[in-house]
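Curious: why these numbers?
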Amino acid sequence: MTFEDYDIEGFFDEMFTPDHQIKQGYVPFSEFVANLSIDDLVQKQHAAERSLMALGITFNVYNAEGGTERIMPLDIIPRIIEGREWDKLEEGLKQRITALNLFIDDVYNGQKVFTDGVVPKTLIESSKCFLKPCLGLQPPKGIWCHITGTDLIRDQHGIMRVLEDNLRCPSGVSYMLENREILKRTFPKALDDTQVRPINNYAISLREMLEYIADKPSPTIVVLTPGIYNSAYFEHAYLALQMGVELVQNSDLVVKNGHVYMRTTKGLKKVDVIYRRIDDTFLDPLTFNPESLLGVPGIFEVYKKGKVALANAPGTGVADDKVIYAYVPKIIKYYLGEEAIIPNVPTYLCENPEDMQYVLDNIADLVVKEANEAGGYGMLIGPKASAEEHEIFRKKIKANPRNYIAQPTIQLSRVPSLAGERIEGRHVDLRPYILYGKEIVITPGGLTRVALRKGSLVVNSSQGGGSKDTWVLY
């Protein structure tokens, strides 16, 4: 099989140069698939899909017609990143997460970032993710954001940029790990010949990080899930199994005598570390949302007293706010004295009157996002939207400018993908996973999310996207 009919269409392509030459990192893979027919590739794709079904690799979509559970789509043509580029990205991600951790700590403690005029205090106080009960909080080892999924995109000029910072409960790492296992069976020789960096030590690194913040030998660790109806429940169960720890819901935990205990068949067992997959405000109904049925009453007070460790620390979501995102280059400069290695996407803040007017006038050309939404929700892609939808968002922006940002519509880079019995380009982004414990560890690659619908720029699985295995070369 060859890629002679593959159409670059003027987009930045991860595999091909503008003159249709195969980039160096893709050469071994292209030589392997040259010996396959398109029918062979389609059969391999179907085999991969059967593996996904057998393994139960699913996610839930709320209010989806015909049920909530879906198989996570996987396109078997990998996304390949050369080692030199990855090393630079890794350096930039470590820089970013170091600065964001210092920023979160400053927000809830010294607040010098406000008094020095780097970030307006009003932006923090008006953020839905700013939690007053966390003021004065000192998390174990001074680490707030233990687990981060930072979304990267490559623009039409080939420049890699940060699109979003996800520091609350970033999901998708289980799909990254299982995608690799499936690709090992699909293209075993191609993986070996291409010299791809391994990713299979993620669960070990995750457990080591959780043990580090416990600061005691052989700590009892649990993964706290909202339950089977959560969109990422498969991942919660998967990671608990991979780490060899218990998966629990709030009904399995109880606060007693100043500690958190897990109910077992042998009685109560003290818990030292909780990897929580529950949003901040649902964590403790006594401190945050009193209507929460997912949290553990009293757990926050135990945490404040240092009797249990939580990952991520409550309050980290303040750095997830898309308005704060626009200030991250300044935040890096302020805390580290360095320029950002990985640039942001240019961003208009609608709370700024001049920016808001520009957005209102040019909404048909922009992507508009709500400050605290995720998963592709609360978003308008101007060029794809109708005049009626433009007007609806104009009204939303005018009613609550603080809640909206806008960015240029970036034509994300593309990777060859199987579209039925053809190979066509599909837009992608990349979510590397960052663990912050004794040191910052970044899994080489991450989850490449792909917009499976032709022409679509929305890669989120809840919005019709799928994923690819990401091969980082040595």
Observations:
- The two ends are 26 Å apart (CA to CA).
- The chain has a mean pLDDT of 93.
- The first strand starts at residue 58 and ends at 60.
- Residues 310 and 427 are 36 Å apart (CA to CA).
